[in-house]
Amino acid sequence: MKLRQIAEIFNAKVEGNPEIEITGVRGLEDAQEGDISYITSSKHIETAKESKASVFIVKEKIENLEKAQLIVENPQLVFARLLEIFYVKPHPFKGISENCFIADTSKIGKNVTVYPFVYIDENVNIGDNTVIYPFTFIGRDSSIGSDCIIYSNVSIREKVKIGNRVTIHAGTVIGSDGFGYIFHEGKHNKIPQVGGVIIEDDVEIGSSVTVDRATTGNTIIGAGTKIDNLVQIAHNVKIGKNSIIVAQVGIAGSSKIGDGCILAGQVGISDHVEIEPGTIITAQSGVMPGKVQKGVFSGTPIMPHREWLKASAIFQKLPEIYKKLREMEEKIKKMEGKND
pLDDT value at position 198? Predict the structure, then answer.
């Protein structure tokens, strides 16, 4: 594409030659001649000057940068959109394979692709333009909306409702039984998990994620929420809209995560936790039962992030403090011995 064509797509301003031919989209360090890259911070300007990229996407014109610039409101977003334009290929329509099983009572929309070795149980509804890759199981009474992508080896159990434009990556299990038992007479008695799962529109779920069905009612993933790989979401959890759940997070039963929250890697959420919208929990933090006010929190149990930084600084000095304390104790003992 010509640079001017890209500028037209994003309603952007060009500084430099608009007729430059753009052949690829890459990061600053990987870019070659003909590539377009982006700069989000002044600290990257020196790296940009050494980069081989032909064009840089910037928020404001950068002086002394002797290459063309595409000026936009959000450089990182435009970079992401260009990656999609240049590299992401649409999933081709291939129809319904003869080597899959679809129950007679299920309804399949228009232009749906079902690959070989897919099993679709009774009373399943699948919307238009959805793609289902091999070795996927979809249980009875479940529904999948339009324009969804379900990758290989996904298991969608019974009574799961999935909205439109949802992507579920390989190996994920939606609607497995919640982990609920009652200890009685020396053994663990299973609590039947008879609820369902609701995944709203525009959700993306990574690989090897487990979303448990509710004991009663529904486990809910709000619209626009993005979930990384290897996340466990327990029964009756409710996650709000446009939240980010990073890899290896575990959320125990009946917890509520508000809209626009960020749970960083390996965060552990106990049961019956309520987290207010817009809250950030940093990596490897542990959240005990109760309500978490909006803010940024760290540690186990969590505390305000600034306090945690101070506490961490003190913790690192504990060996030195302990050594000095022992030396003081020895001096005091010697002084007491002289006085005796």
Answer: 98
> What is the full DSSP assignment across 197-251?
EEE-TT-EE-TT-EEEPPSSSEEEE-TT-EE-SS-EE-TT-EE-TT-EE-TT-EE
**pLDDT value of position 340:** 63
Beta-carbon contacts of residue 224 (< 8 Å; ≥ 6 apart): 200, 201, 202, 203, 241, 242
Residue 179: count of CB within 10 angstroms of its CB: 14
With a cut of 50, list the residues of the chain below it in pLDDT.
none
Output the pTM of the full model: 0.89
Tell me if residue 188 is catalytic: no
Looking at residue 41, what is its pLDDT? 86
Cα–Cα dist 266/281, whole Å: 10
Write down the pLDDT at residue 339.
67
Whole-angstrom Cα distance, residue 95 to residue 116? 11
- Strand-pairing partners, residue 290, are 273
Supply angle C-alpha 175, 136, 120, rounded to 5: 80
Q: What is the tens place of the pLDDT at every residue in 101-110? A: 999 999 999 9
Report residue 327 as tokens: 């030396």
Q: Which pLDDT value is given to residue 24?
A: 96
User: Could you tell me the two tokens for 52?
Assistant: 């081989």
Residue type, 168: I
Inter-residue contact 145 to 165 (CB < 8 Å): yes
Which tens digit of pLDDT belongs to each residue from 313-339? 998 999 999 999 998 988 888 887 766
Structure tokens at 34: 């003909």
Find the catalytic residue in 44, 91, 184, 235.
235
Within a 13 Å sphere around the CA of 7, how many CA atoms are in the beta-carbon half? 20
Pairing relationship of beta strands 160-162 and 196-199 according to DSSP bridges: parallel
For 299-326, letters b (16+ CB in 10 Å) and e give beebeebeebeeeeeeeeeeeeeeeeee
CA-atom Rg of the chain in angstroms? 27
Q: How far is CA 48 from the centre of its chain?
A: 29
